[in-house]
Amino acid sequence: MFDQALYDRLIARTILDVHGCRLWQGQTDGKKDKTNIYGRTSYRGHTIAAHIAMWKAVKGRPRKGMQIDHRCANTLCIEITHLQERTNLKNSRLREKRKKHKGDVLKCLAVRG
User: Fold this and answer.
1) What is the pLDDT along the chain (113 residues), one digit of tens a residue?
2) Which domain holds residue 76?
3) How many CA atoms lie less than 13 Å away from 97 in the CB half-sphere?
4) How many domains does the chain have?
């Protein structure tokens, strides 16, 4: 299940910040809103979100109906310990809870859902 080549390629395009976020430094989705920008990478001939590629590299394909949630609320983070599977509804509810902590990664990580 672990895809070492994909993992190594993703890690090479990141920097580690003081909060433990592994921040994507490669291509992004090009959104002008810098607070909600996602990393993009190629995977098997398709362009996908970098955090989803990291999930696939380490844990395999997400379960059906699940989304990959950023526990740290940093959409450029691909640190596997900051990612988790969530339903769309749960992901939306947690996003709202974390808005009040935007910019404080440690508080965002502490939000339980």
Assistant:
1) 799 999 999 999 999 999 999 999 999 998 777 678 999 999 999 999 999 999 999 999 999 999 999 999 999 999 999 999 999 999 999 988 888 887 888 888 888 87
2) 4-110
3) 16
4) 1
Q: What is the DSSP string of the chain?
A: ---HHHHHHHHTTEEE-TTS-EEE-S-B---S-GGG--BEEEETTEEEEHHHHHHHHHH-SPPTTEEEEETT--TTB--GGGEEEEEHHHHHHHHHHHHTTTT-HHHHHH---
Structural contact between residues 93 and 106, judged by C-beta atoms closer than 8 angstroms: no
CATH number at residue 9: 3.90.75
Q: Are 49 and 84 in contact (CB under 8 A)?
A: no
